[in-house]
C-alpha cells in the first residue's frame, strides 16, 4: 500500500492553512503543521486527527526565524520526506481611508513575514526534494501581487516579490522533478479578510479555497488562481494604462487596517 502523502503547511493555525490541513487530513495525510499560536495550532492538529490524518505533528515557530525554520523543515524531512510544502503563513497590512503613509515599522515586520518568511520556509526543502527528484512546493501569493492596489502598497509589493520568486523557481526546479505552484487567492473568508472593510467580490469559504488549492496541486498547476474572473480582471488591469486603473481603484472605499506585527529583533 502506498504511504500517505506528507504535507508541511505554515500558517496552519488559522484560515486557509488550517482548511488545507483539514482537506489533506480527510485523505489520511501525514501532516506537519506550523504556526505561532500554540493553542490554535494544537486545535488544528486535533481537528485533523479527528478528520482522519495519519498524524499531525505541530511546530510553534515564527517564519521570520531562518535558523528555526531550517531546523524544523530539515527535521521533518529527515523523519519522512515531505511530498508537498505549502508556504502559506502571512499577514496583511494597509491604509485606512485618508491615510497616506504606512507605518514603517509595520511595513518592515510584514515584509519579514511575507517575503523572508516564505524564503525561510521553502529554501530548506529545495535541495532534498531535488535529490529525491520528487516534491511539490506551493507558495501562497495574492491577487494583490498581480496588479497593485492603492490601499495596501507594501502588501502588494511583498506578494509581487513572492510571485516573481515562485515563477523563477518553477522554471529551474521542474527538470529536477520538483513542481512549484503559485497560489493566487482572491477574497477568502478568514480572520485576515474579516479585518479588511471593502466590497469583496467572489469571496469564498476557506474550505472551498482549500479544495481548489488541493486539486490544483494534484494537477501540478503552475498557477492556482481563484476565482478566475478576478484573476482575469487583475491581469487585464495590469495591461491597461496605469493612470486609468489607478482612477478606477480610487473610487472604491477600502480600509485595510495596519498589522500590529513589529520586528522581533
Ligand atoms: N484571506 C484572504 O482573502 C487572502 C487573499 C489572498 C491571499 N491570502 C494569503 O493567504 C495566506 C493565509 O491567510 P489567511 O487569510 O488564512 O490568514 P489568517 O487566517 O490570518 O492566517 C494566517 C496564518 O499565518 C500564520 N502566521 C502569520 N505570521 C506568522 C509568523 N510570523 N510565523 C508563523 N506563522 C505566521 C498565522 O499563525 P498564528 O496566528 O499562529 O501566528 C496563521 O496561521 C496569507 O499568506 C495571505 O496573505 C489571503
Concise overview:
The chain is α/β, with parallel strands linked by helices and 265 residues long.
Describe the structure.
Helices cover 48% and strands 16% of the residues. By secondary structure, the protein is of the alpha/beta class. The protein has a single domain (6-250), classed as Rossmann fold. The strands form 2 sheets. It has a 7-stranded parallel sheet with strand order 3-2-1-4-5-6-9, sandwiched between helices. A two-stranded parallel sheet has the order 7-8. Helix 6 (191-195) links the parallel strand 7 (188-189) and strand 8. The longest helix is centred in the middle third of the chain and has 29 residues, at 104-132. It is globular, with a radius of gyration of 18 Å. The mean pLDDT is 96. Residues 10-11, 13-17, 35-37, 40-41, 62-64, 88-92, 113, 117, 140, 142, 185, 187-188, 190-193 line the site of NADP nicotinamide-adenine-dinucleotide phosphate (NAP). NADP nicotinamide-adenine-dinucleotide phosphate (NAP) is lined by residues 10-11, 13-17, 35-37, 40-41, 62-64, 88-92, 113, 117, 140, 142, 185, 187-188, 190-193.
The SSE string, one letter per element, is EHEHEHEHEHEEHEHEHH
Q: Look at the structure and give the CATH class.
A: Alpha Beta
Bound molecule kinds, no repeats: NADP nicotinamide-adenine-dinucleotide phosphate
Question: Considering DSSP H and I runs of 4 or more, what fraction of the residues is helical?
Answer: 40-55%
Q: Main sheet: which strands, in order across?
A: 3-2-1-4-5-6-9
Biggest sheet overview: 7 strands, parallel
What would the CATH topology be?
Answer: Rossmann fold
Strand content: 15-25%
- Average pLDDT confidence is 96
Amino acid at each position: 500500500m502506498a504511504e500517505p502523502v506528507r504535507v508541511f503547511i505554515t500558517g496552519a493555525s488559522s484560515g486557509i492553512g488550517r482548511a488545507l490541513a483539514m482537506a489533506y487530513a480527510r485523505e489520511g495525510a501525514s501532516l506537519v503543521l506550523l504556526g505561532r499560536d500554540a493553542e490554535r495550532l494544537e486545535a488544528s492538529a486535533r481537528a485533523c486527527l479527528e478528520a482522519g490524518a495519519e498524524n499531525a505533528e505541530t511546530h510553534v515557530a515564527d517564519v521570520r526565524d531562518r535558523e528555526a525554520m531550517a531546523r524544523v523543515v530539515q527535521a521533518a524531512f529527515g523523519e519522512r520526506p515531505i511530498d508537498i510544502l505549502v508556504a502559506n503563513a502571512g499577514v496583511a497590512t494597509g491604509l485606512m481611508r485618508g491615510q497616506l503613509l504606512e507605518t514603517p515599522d509595520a511595513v518592515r515586520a510584514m515584509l519579514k513575514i511575507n517575503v523572508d518568511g516564505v524564503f525561510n520556509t521553502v529554501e530548506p526543502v529545495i535541495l532534498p526534494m531535488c535529490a529525491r527528484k520528487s516534491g511539490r512546493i506551493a507558495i501562497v501569493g495574492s491577487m494583490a501581487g498581480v496588479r497593485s492596489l492603492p490601499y495596501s502598497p507594501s502588501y502588494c509589493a511583498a506578494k509581487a516579490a513572492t510571485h516573481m520568486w515562485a515563477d523563477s523557481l518553477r522554471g529551474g526546479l521542474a527538470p529536477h522533478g520538483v513542481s512549484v505552484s503559485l497560489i493566487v487567492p482572491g477574497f477568502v473568508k478568514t480572520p485576515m479578510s474579516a479585518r479588511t472593510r471593502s466590497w469583496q467580490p467572489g469571496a469564498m469559504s476557506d474550505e472551498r479555497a482549500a479544495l481548489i488549492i488541493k486539486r490544483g496541486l494534484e494537477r501540478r498547476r503552475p498557477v492556482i488562481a481563484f476565482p478566475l474572473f478576478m484573476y482575469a480582471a487583475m491581469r487585464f488591469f495590469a495591461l491597461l494604462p496605469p493612470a486609468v486603473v489607478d482612477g478606477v481603484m480610487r473610487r472604491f472605499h477600502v480600509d485595510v487596517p495596519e498589522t500590529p506585527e513589529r520586528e522581533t529583533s
